[in-house]
Amino acid sequence: MVLRLTVPEKVLVHLYTYRKYVDRYDYPMEMTQQGIAQAVGISVTHIPRNLKKLMEEGLVKMKKGHVTGKKKRVAVYFLTPSGIAEATKLIEEICNTEIKIGKEYLKICEIRKVTGLPYMDILKRLEKGDIENVLHTGERIIFREVEADIRDFVGRERELKLLQEGYEKGTHLVIIGSRGTGKSSLVEKFLSINPITDGILWFDVYPGRTWNSVKAILKNLFGEEDILHILRRNKILIIFDGYHRVDDEFVNALNSLIQEDLGDSHLIITMLPETPYYNRFYTLKDVSKGRVLEVRLGNLSYEETRYLFPKVREDAFKRIYQITQGNPRLLVLLKRGELEETNLLNPEIVHLLNYLVTVREE
Most buried among 21, 61, 88, 242, using CB within 10 Å? Predict the structure, then answer.
């Protein structure tokens, strides 16, 4: 039986992960209203009243802080001591809940141990009925820490072709693009249109991610930490998403892997163009020798963007493109009416864009 939590309870479980972040200078997006909404699976517009209820009960408190990717200080949320106690009770209940997977029953804490996923991610997957996607499926293993949204994916035919050609050659693929250009979505689209039968391991390279944390998950999945042995023995596509600033051990581990024969296994890494060169795990020599293929990802072209707004009048669309410069994140948020829920643009520009998308051909 799937454990059903209320929205406030889900918020408590989510924020429990960040209970030790009170005195930090920078805070992760997951502690903002936007991050909380994404974690618990509801619209941002429904978050304020739930947070207000929790604050009135003395379970959550709020402060302004610096958040990665935000220019101005924004509201971040923490559990109070009472909130931590309440969240601890909920997590104990969640942990001991048994779920039927195939013919066997597993406790949620056992699923977490095997997958390495946060409790909220497991609960969301259980609600959708796709928890088996992160557990063993015969010989194939699927493990995902990232799920990119491709509902409004357009264009990128050239990039998808490059990925397909590189994948077929066994070349390691590196997707380089600025924030908001859709690197994760490109990987998701690539997986959706290609009949990939490999096992898939998709890691989120969040700030502070260590190679040891990757090895711990591999041990849960395969019973060993030797990734080279795992990749040679199995047919696996391993994705490191958001590779930017990592420690030397992480860099050295990936550098060693691309020099080896991995059999039928592949690597895909997404990274920002400002990734320091001392953190890049390959050199120009690796590119020239065909060990690594770089796929550069820029903004969408005028024609590609037009597919998102086919009914908008041409002069209004030109203005939209001029303002957004074809940035996929801005365009998708605009299309969904969610642009004002972020701090990506000033309110005046957001108001103008929201008006322009209503200007239709007569």
Answer: 242
| Residue 137 clears pLDDT 50, i.e. is over it | no
Calpha distance 116→138 (Å, rounded): 20
Whose tokens are 């009135």? That residue is 56
Structural domains of the chain, ranges and CATH numbers in brackets? 7-97 (1.10.10.10), 157-297 (3.40.50.300), 302-356 (no CATH)
Task: State the Cα–Cα distance between residues 40 and 53, nearest whole angstrom.
Answer: 16
Estimate the share of the chain in helix, then strand, then coil, as percent rounded to the nearest 5.
Answer: 45, 20, 35
The closest alpha carbon to 121, from 204, 179, 186, 45, belongs to 204
Please state, in angstroms and rounded to a whole number, the distance separating the CA atoms of residues 160 and 190: 6
Rounded Cα gap, residues 34 and 29, in angstroms: 7
- The string of DSSP letters for 129-176 reads T-GGGGSEETTEEEEES-----TT----HHHHHHHHHHHHHT-EEEEE
Cβ atoms < 10 Å from Cβ of 101: 15
Q: Does residue 60 surpass a pLDDT of 90?
A: yes
Please, what sign has the CA dihedral across residues 146, 151, 156, 160? positive
pLDDT higher than 60, residue 133: no
- Is pTM, for the whole model, over 0.70? no
Q: Given this model, what pLDDT does residue 351 score? A: 92
Q: CA dist 244 to 175, 177, 178, 267, Å? A: 12, 11, 11, 16
Residue 266 bridge partners (DSSP):
237
353 backbone dihedrals φ, ψ, rounded to 5°: -65, -40
Confirm if 25 and 74 have CB atoms less than 8 A apart.
no
23: Cα within 13 Å, side-chain hemisphere:
0
> Which residues lie below 8 Å from residue 98, measured CB to CB, with a gap of 6+?
105, 106, 107, 108
